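Example for tutorial group B:
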């Protein structure tokens, strides 16, 4: 598998921080004119209006009907786990509910989410069709090397062929959602050793080696008292 595709967990923090900036206007035009698959129900919910009850535990689908059909969920799960597979430190993306997160996200009745819905649904359909054309089976039913052979061609826009530019942009959006969903779970936060939202008796600031790495000196400059 080529290096740009696999999620390097050492650099995941940079990916997550960049996720907001990784929503350029070009991603809003992905699969422009592509029909949403007929198996997907139209969005009829109006959203929750004011803030939801933060003391209540919401199950997927409580706030609005979900979108993904069973086969779409299988394809999404296979792709999620190709992006973030299980390892010695943490479970796979699908094992911690990332498919539910993506389904919830694209089912939300807000403009940005609805644009993502078109992108994700059309992308899943393309991925399955490409798998059928190459291997005679759907994406969720092929083996890991076969999945990789498809995704290696769409995982990095500067190296993608012109014919696959649209699919590459779809893959980038799906990867952003997968990474964002995974690393906001307890398992994902433990994986990157995130210690936020925890009460501390004291805070000594960033360690000196971290400040040096980002170009900030941890030592006082000449003339400081």
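The residue assignment follows.
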């Amino acid at each position: 598998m080529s290096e740009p595709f696999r999620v390097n967990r050492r650099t995941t923090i940079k990916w997550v921080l960049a996720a907001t900036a990784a929503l350029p206007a070009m991603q809003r035009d992905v699969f422009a004119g592509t029909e949403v698959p007929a198996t997907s129900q139209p969005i009829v919910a109006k959203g929750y209006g004011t803030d939801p009850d933060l003391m209540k535990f919401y199950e997927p689908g409580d706030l609005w009907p979900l979108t993904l059909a069973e086969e779409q969920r299988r394809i999404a799960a296979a792709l999620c786990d190709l992006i973030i597979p299980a390892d010695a430190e943490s479970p796979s993306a699908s094992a911690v509910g990332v498919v539910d997160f993506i389904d919830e996200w694209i089912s939300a009745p807000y403009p940005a989410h609805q644009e993502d819905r078109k992108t994700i649904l059309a992308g899943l359909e393309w991925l399955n069709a490409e798998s059928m054309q190459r291997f005679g089976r759907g994406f969720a039913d092929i083996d890991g090397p076969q999945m990789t052979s498809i995704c290696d061609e769409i995982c990095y826009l500067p190296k993608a062929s012109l014919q696959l530019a649209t699919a590459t942009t779809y893959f980038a959006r799906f990867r952003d959602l997968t990474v964002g969903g995974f690393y906001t779970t307890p398992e994902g936060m433990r994986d990157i050793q995130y210690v936020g939202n925890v009460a501390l008796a004291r805070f000594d600031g960033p360690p000196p080696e971290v400040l040096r790495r980002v170009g900030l000196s941890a030592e006082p400059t000449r003339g400081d008292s």
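Residues 1-7, 9-34 have pLDDT under 50 and may be disordered. Compare this with the pattern of hydrophobic and polar residues in the output above.
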